[in-house]
Amino acid sequence: MVRNVASRLAQSLHDQVTITSCLWAHFVTGVVPDMSVVRAILKITWASAAGQVHLITSSLDEIEKATERPPTKPPDPEDLQVCREGLETLSVVLALYPPALETLTKDTQFHKLVMGLVLVGGERSIRQCAVEQLLLMATKCSNSPHTLVVFIVMLFNVLNGLNGEYSKEYFQLLCGLLNWACVSSVAVTGVDRLLTTEVEWLKNVRASVAQMAQGGPEPPVDDTLLEGHLCVTRELVAFLPAEKKYEIGGDPSKSIFLIKELVEDFIFPFSKVYLQLEHAAEMPAEQAIPVCSTQPTVIAAYELLVTLCTGCVPNLKLLAEMLTNMYYSDCDESIGEWEYLPPVGPRPVKGFVGLKNAGATCYMNSVLQQLYMIRQIRHGVLAVEGAATDPEEDFSGEERMEQETNLDGNEEDAMNSSSNEESRKEYHIGILKQVQAIFAHLACSKLQYYVPRGLWKHFKLQGEPVNLREQHDACEFYNILVESLNEALKALGHEQIMNKILGGSYSDQKICKTCPHRYSREETFTVISIDIRNYSNLYDSLEQYVKGDLLEGDNAYLCEKCDKKVDTVKRICLKKLPPIMAIQLKRFDYDWERECSIKFNDYFEFPRELDMDPYTVAGLARNGELIDYDPEDMKTIVCSKYKLTGIVVHSGQASGGHYYSYILHRNGNDQRWYKFDDGEVTECKMDDEDEMKNQCFGGEYMGEQVFDNIMKRVSYRRQKRWWNAYLLFYTRLDVEEDNLSNSMSELSLAERPGLIKMPSAIDRSVVRQNVRFMHSRSQFSPEYFQFLKKLIMTNHPFVLQPPQDRVAESEEIAMISTQLCSKFLFSVGLHTKKTLRGPAPEWYDALQVHLRASVHTRAWFAQHILFTQPHRFMEYLLECPAPEVRMVFSKLIVLVGHCARNDPPQPLGWGPLKHHPVKCGRNVHVSGAR
Fold first, then answer.
1. Which CATH superfamily is domain 503-735 in?
2. 53-63 pLDDT tens trace
3. Is 21 exposed, middle or buried (0-12, 13-18, 19+ CB in 10 A)?
4. What percent of the chain has pLDDT above 90?
5. Is residue 410's pLDDT more than 50?
6. Tens-digit pLDDT profile for residues 617-646
7. Do the beta carbons of residue 375 and residue 381 sit within 8 Å?
8. Could you report how far apart the first and last alpha carbons of the chain are, in Å?
9. Which of 398, 588, 871, 902 is 20 to 30 A from 509, comparing alpha carbons?
10. What are phi and psi of 762, to 5 degrees?
11. Which long-range contacts (CB under 8 A, 24 or more apart) does 890-897 make?
């Protein structure tokens, strides 16, 4: 409706273009809107925003009361379109009739409309449109700066009661208005007071995060609120002169130290701890938790730092010194390789840590992840003391790459043959220690994956070190690992948690038919191995597993008590069911004729929920089967129902392939399947029946299209699914699911080492690795690179001024910026991939302004960057593989030489230049060609 009216009005005005100026003036006077039109548009906009279009004929008071009630149905798209067009029309009307805006700014109902459109929950598109149009109204529809100030005051009045969920658009509007006021030199009353309030808010957030780092509750700070307050602080700081910026940023006499707190607590807390470890070699008492933990908040904090340093030499100097100490001090080594990217990424947000594959160690990784995700095993293993006793031992798994690639069975064997033979007890304890290190890093590491180097070196199969490039059976590794962990726990005097959780027992029975004698032997197990050949599902295979065989004739059993052979029923059945039951699907065998291993890819399905009662001694007895049982056992009620929680899949052939795991993660009522594929852990759709069938059951499928020359048409070829389930993990339903859910949530969502009991030596190693990684990651991020570029360029206007107009500090600004930028570029920046550093010419544009501005910056650059390193020219002109980096270095050389041609000689008394080829036959100096 509004659009149609506007279209007809525009067409009518267009048709009247040819009238005389007098008549035109009279015509325009007749069509200029008045307050009645403005209020009508307000009604339409407000009512449609609330989904109450039928109220457009009501008063604004009635519309206000209706909008206070929560909506009973989702908004109509046409209502939303009317609201957006109403806002746009209101902007046009106010531009035509500016006095109306002055009137509206004094109307409390208009204030409520503004807050309702910007802050009240609903369609984000309405809030975004409101921000855009209100910004136009405040800046373009009035000639008086007072209107802009009124809008700013109106928004500040509700700042303290914001809801973080819907506040993003509010902060966008407030920051846009403040920015316009600063650029337009509009005086905003109470800037100092408002800024003080914002700084206090940031300090309170910092204090709450510090309390959480010491074990307190998590701070109730919404990231949207944090980002918004950082942005508002930035816009308020932009109003300040350099002296005031220094008081806020780093003046010791004022003790505000906003720059120091932003760097050490909001953005780089890990770098702060890293420096402490480098100098003191002692772990800090509290954890390093950044206040800004999301990309938008980090960017907002960076931009606040840039604003604090714009035109303020002391702040810029302070920040440059802090960054240099963290990343570019003399003790730090520069990157030697080109096109560098960090080899390991961060742990996924609310995700899990993977395990690195050394070549063919996927069979280890898939089993270790399954064991780790069992809460009782994870906590039980980590809580054991006595295995990791050396407080200085490094469990990080970090080592030089060439050493890792050279690690194979022969080298490990040579190492062990030259050392003393360790006892079996020490070996098992060593395995326990390495598994503890793996579990600790899986729980608390901030890296994408952990390198289990210690287990690679320590683990043995049949007494021999493993070759990391040779694949072994995952079930065999599972059995050996569980046995070794049990032996270690026994040696240290702890409960054998592996047997308690994974161990069950079966009854091997022989029941004589022609005499009353029965023989039964109970044996333990940690995995049930069942046949899949000639069976299509787990039920049939389990039924065959407990089915009795009749021994008769020549195969009759020799009854020891009768001392003669009698017909006997021989069967194996389950007696004690474990809390976590592992089932091996026997897909591998050995072909003795061909003398090679073979794999069966037959179709074999298994249920998500499984009742094991029919396969137990008690269950068979209840069904009337011939079996030996204790009547007392029949009175005991034991849960026999299980739920599928883990699958180990083998992909490939018997001679080689790949193992990976699917694991069910439960968090309260929410449950999700994850795929653990070595270093990659991703969510998957294994809860879908078709996905389960396609990924785990094996069998055949219709594969790629082929052209049939006989039939003269395209047909599909049936192919085997060579990826299928090999190990199944079922969890008994009476296992404490509440504790499981809480612990899983705790590990995957918090990643706080203090919440998990573990040996102190391993805990320190995890923290050290996290600190080193996060320190490096803070630097090798696109956000940091962009921040540094903005920091270098923010003072270009001060440096580019004509010599007669330059401020006294402009040369110092140029020197500080040149030093920081040069150290960054030639130690890190130019050696990274373009995806991280961005276009290299942009860095040239950032640096060249400062080099042109000052003789001293050119002299420093020539001395410390060009000539101090004898091989720098060859490195950047000949060895560098990136053409644009070579071009930038060439342009910097030309720029310095060109600008220095009229500079006075600068004596170079530096050691590295004494034998440098750049000598002029006399005293070496930085000067242009004479």
1. Cysteine proteinases (3.90.70.10)
2. 777 777 777 77
3. exposed
4. 45
5. no
6. 888 888 777 676 667 666 677 888 999 999
7. no
8. 77
9. 588
10. -70, -40
11. 891/844, 891/848, 892/844, 892/847, 892/848, 892/851, 892/861, 893/866, 895/848, 895/851, 895/852, 896/851, 896/858, 896/861, 896/862, 896/866, 897/928, 897/929
Whether the CB-CB separation of 263 and 333 falls below 8 Å is answered with no
pLDDT per residue as tens digits for the range 503-528: 999 888 888 877 877 777 888 999 99
Rg (CA), the chain: 37
State the pLDDT confidence band at 818, using cuts at 50, 70 and 90.
Answer: very high
Q: At which residue do the structure tokens 């597993």 appear?
A: 545
The reply to whether the predicted model has a pTM over 0.85 is no
pLDDT in tens, 14-57: 565 544 444 444 444 556 778 888 888 888 888 887 777 777 77
Give 275's Cβ-side CA count (13 Å radius). Answer: 13
In the chain, DSSP finds a helix count (H) and a strand count (E) of 39, 22
**Pair of tokens at residue 123:** 């369609």
DSSP helix/strand/coil, 709: coil
Domain spans in the chain, listed from the N-terminal domain onward: 1-31, 32-189, 354-413+428-436+448-498+752-774, 503-735, 802-930
Read off the tokens for 384. 């054991």
Question: Which string of b and e fits 859-877 if b means at least 16 CB within 10 Å?
Answer: bbbbbbbbbebeeebebbe
- Measured CA distances, 482 to 396, 489, 602, 614, 658 (Å): 23, 11, 29, 27, 22
What are the DSSP calls for 14-27, one per residue?
Answer: HHTTTS-HHHHHHH
Query: What is the widest separation between alpha-carbon atoms in the chain?
Result: 133
Residues belonging to the active site: 362, 658
- For residue 743, what are the CA distances in angstroms to 378, 445, 479, 568, 747? 10, 16, 26, 50, 6
Residues in the chain: 930
